Structure formats: structure tokens, C-alpha cells
Protein: Membrane protein
Amino acid sequence: MGIELAWLHGVYVLFVLGIIFMMVMRRDTSLISIVGIALLGLVATGSVTSAIGGIFGSFIYAITELLPTILVICIIVAMSHVLTDTGVNETMIRPMTHLIRNATLAYWVIGIVMMVISWFFWPSPAVALIGAVMLPVALRAGLPAMGVAIAMNLFGHGIALSGDFVIQGAPTLTAKAAGLPVQDVISASVPLVIVMGLVTTIIAFWYLKKDMRLGNIPASTNDTPATAHVFSAARVPLPTGTRRLLAALVPLLFALDVAAMFAFDLRGGDATALVGGTALLILLIATMLAHKQKGLEQVTSHLISGFQFGFKVFGPVIPIAAFFYMGDSGFVKVFGEVLPAGSQGIVNDLGVALAHTIPISKEVAALTVAAVGVITGLDGSGFSGITLAGSLAQLFATALGAGAATLTALGQIAAIWVGGGTIIPWALIPAAAICGVDPFELARRNLYPVAIGLLVTTIVAMFLL
Structure:
């Protein structure tokens, strides 16, 4: 085998199982992750002070690894706030409403627009924008509020967030946990995201039309109270010409970013930096045009709100990410050269041991990683456990001898589709509230399409391994 498993490996496996159990029980994983880091340090070094200091060191390591991702999301959310306050977001999206002529077009137009905007702004800011502007138009076209919520949910928190091709927050987390380049995970995720997206949205639309025909969902033609007041007027009015100029400038700049990524072969951190820098420039320009003399102070105010959002989202991720980083090269960075002789990292060692003791097939690997992704999504965030999915994908890929990127992408997709806001009711609240529907009913209607989509996607992943 090259390396014999030690107590250190047993402690790691024990806490991985403990974290999965806590997720199944819908309990927070921060405490067990921190205790796991401390015990790993204690077993490896035999020093209480090193173990306690390692907790802090692991947090620093995790934050250092995740900081570019956290920062770009903070800046994009801050930019979204100023664009919303000035009415630029509404001006950008309103031309799309002219394409909505019937319920079918409403479903697909709203979904596709939500997906595109979510790639650049993330789904959370996009929900209020799309819902407020397009919901009344969709209702008049005959699509019920539940249909709008389903479309926004599946295309935004499902397709866009599970791929996350532009901001690259999700693939960065899973790639680092699996010890892979971000671009490898993104490339491997493309066919899986397409399969998952097509199967889920088509089945959801079929169920929706069937229920509309049977009268189970009455088609409404009235605006819902949830959106009656939203975007009625910009909180910081801009002259019409200026607002239209910014509405044209924002998508143009991001389109140029995408072109630059292809032209100059910008990948991973370089691509993220370009998107983040562009968002920051838009934030500065829009804020100064809107607030003029008070612009200097408002720039800081918008940045603060963005950072508050970012750290609220990633706060629960840091402890669990810190633990799973200990399964790879992060352990040596935090605790020093204390691994057993010949060890290639805890997860790699476990993968080699697994390959020598249990016959692991690609079918077993794909089903297990997908199941773990679903379990990690049960906390309702989708992000807190994708490092676990990445770590297990690395383990199974080591046992199989190939397929690390595909398994990592599969785990990422499963975790985010379940926890990122399509199945777990408390993760559905923003879309449900904007559309004025029950989040539990929305979750129930998403369940079968998402479950079928995950099954088909897992089968496709087996053939790609």
C-alpha cells in the first residue's frame, strides 16, 4: 500500500462521518469541525498548544484560500445594491418584458434572464430584481406566481449557481478541497450542468402546465402584494438619460470581460479578479453619479453592505472548509511535517487504502458523491458542505485512478441544487416572498424535477468517468 493508516486517519474519518450526521440532523457543523481540527492536531503533534493554535492557523489558511472568492462576491453584491437603489437594474431588465406574450414564454424568458443575471450578480440579488419587474408581466400573460417562483428558482439558484461559471465561487471551493485547478472542475461541470438544467426545467414546466390545465394552480392576472411596492421608484433617482447610459454600460462591460477571458485565456483567479475589478469600477461610477457630493461616503456604505453579505454567507463555510483543508496540503501548512512517513495527505492515503481493500466502481463512486452532495445541501446553504463533496471526490478518484474533476463537479451540483435554494424550504424564502407563494409548496413542486434531474445527471457522470 505504501502507507499504513494511523490514528490520524481514523480521527479524520470519524469527524467526516460526524459532520455528515450533523448535516442530516440539520444541525450546525462549526463546533464539530473545530473540535475535529483540534483533535487532528493533538493526534499528529502530541501537543495541546499546537492543537489549539492549529485551530486558529486552520482558519487563517481557509480564509486565505477563500478570500478572493469572498471578496468578489462582496463587491458584486455592493455593486448590485447601488444599481438597485438608482433604478439602473430595473432599466436593464425592463426591455426583456416585451418578449413575454404567454405563459410558456413567460416561464422560459424569466428563467433564462434569471440565469444570465445570476451568473454575473449571483441569484440572491437577482431574485428581487427579476421578481419585482417581471412578475406582474408574467401574471398578465397567464403564468401563475408559483410558475414564476419555480422558473427563478431552478434557473437561478439551480443552473446558474451550481455552475457559477463567471464568479467561480462554488467551483473554487470544491476544486481547492479536491486539490484540482478550478478550470478543470468548471470544464467537467459544463455537460453535467447542461443535463441537470435541461432535465429539471423541462420536467418542472411539464408538471406546471399539467397542474394549470387541471386547475390545481389558478392562473392569476393580478399583481401580488409582495411586489406592489418594489421598484415603484428608485430610492436615489437618476436622470433618465444617465440611468439608460448606465443600464447599457453595465452589461457591455461584463460582456467585454467575458470576451477578454477568451481572448487572453484568463482562468481562475485572473478571471475572478477581472470580474471583481469591473464590478468595483461600476460601483464607483454609479455611486458618484447618483450621490455626487455625498458619493465618497456612499461608496464606503455600499462596500460595507457588500462585506456584511459576503461574510454572512461565508461565515459558516470557514470552519468546515478549514477542517477539510486539513485532509490535503493544508495540514502540513498548519501543523508542519508531522504526517506519517510516506503519506501523501490524509485524503489521498484513505483513497489508496480504499482502492486496496474495497472494489470501488465508477457507479458506486458517482452515486456516493451525489448522495453526499445531497446530504451536505440539507443545511439550506449549499456552500457549507461542498468542500466535503470535493474532498470525497478526491478520495474516490484516487481509488479509481481517474475522474476527479467529474466527481467533484457532480458533488458540487448535487449540493447546490439541494441546498442552494431549490429543495430546502428555508433556502427558498427570498423567491417565495417576492412571488407571494408558500416556500414549502415551492419546495414540494421542485422536489420531483430536481430528484429526476439528479438521477439522470448522476448516470451521465458514470459514463463520463
In short: The two ends are 24 Å apart (CA to CA). Residues 7-464 form one domain.
